[in-house]
Fold this sequence. Notes:
The chain is globular. The longest helix is centred in the last third of the chain and has 20 residues. Helix 1 crosses helix 9, helix 3 packs parallel to helix 4 and helix 6 packs parallel to helix 8. The strands form two sheets. It has a seven-stranded parallel sheet with strand order 3-2-1-4-5-6-11, with helices on both faces. A four-stranded mixed sheet has the order 8-7-9-10. It is α/β, with parallel strands linked by helices.
Amino acid sequence: MPEIRIAVAGVGNCASSLVQGISYYSRKRKDVVGLMHHDVCGYRPGDIKLVAAFDIDGRKVGSPLEKAIFAPPNCTKTIEAKIPPTGVRVLMGHVLDGVAPHMGLYPPERSFVISKARPVDVARVLKERGVDILVNYLPVGSEKATRYYAECCLESGVSLINCIPVFIASDKSWAGRFEKKGIPVIGDDVKSQIGATIIHRSLAKLFNDRGVKLDNTYQLNTGGNTDFLNMLNRERLVSKKISKTEAVQSMLDIPIPPDNIHIGPSDYVPWQKDNKVCFMRLEGRIFGDIPINCELRLSVEDSPNSGGCIIDAIRCCKVARDKGIGGVLESISAYTMKHPIRQYPDEVARSMVEEFIRGERDR
């Protein structure tokens, strides 16, 4: 099979897990866990090749990608300690709104050291390096920066997998532009393999399917990575809260009133590093209006938890490109993203992806 040439925007913990995961799964042939399938229409993880990377941190810009993924403030657990040389050096991206002002109040080992290098022409780099897919791993709240990279994709004919809650694939205007250009796009806001949102959706659906009236629910998340530090600025959380809340509300026949549902990042705890802890509570009523309460605590390494979803999304996106399919890939978006253009129950979304892989649906 031909290689899948990808670029990443943002060389943080998620990019680190992705790069390490590609190396790890390219060697693994048996007992493959963490992926939907080891083989998707002939494409295996080892067929994914990193050919470009963009960041703004001076400790990463100019460094080989295989070293930059381990540079501070990255703190995720190691999957592969030694990554073969990629031949890729991290290029200076465009800062725009990619760094929240409050990040400068924290020491460099927790935050950014903005590079003094001159930003590159991203669209030109994407063209020159023959990139198939750009994976957007910018910080939450990077509205202008995400739109800039989306424009670069449209200009260069490159697909976008948008892993953050800036609405591109789920926005009809942006989706229409990608479809008009014949470019596949996947988004928005990546789900984890087993994360807070997927569990919350499952429990909300269980309540709904069993005839329980869900009255109140919350999801409180803490973590110690740069993502949680960035999200201390509540102004950057508007789309994040919409994305996570809609993902749960879509499982209910009657949505919960806004004052009775709270979902979103809660606090930054430095010593947790890339470990995310979720506290969840659902309050409802069963037969005879008798109360029922469910509480759950989830602890999981945050960045590797979404790596498999992105490797699956990359391969489905390349299949669509091979077939000349443009626009939003509805099936894989619904399966791997919190805020797809249309919400489906997770088991339905999984079936849709299987149909896409078998060639029984075009998107």
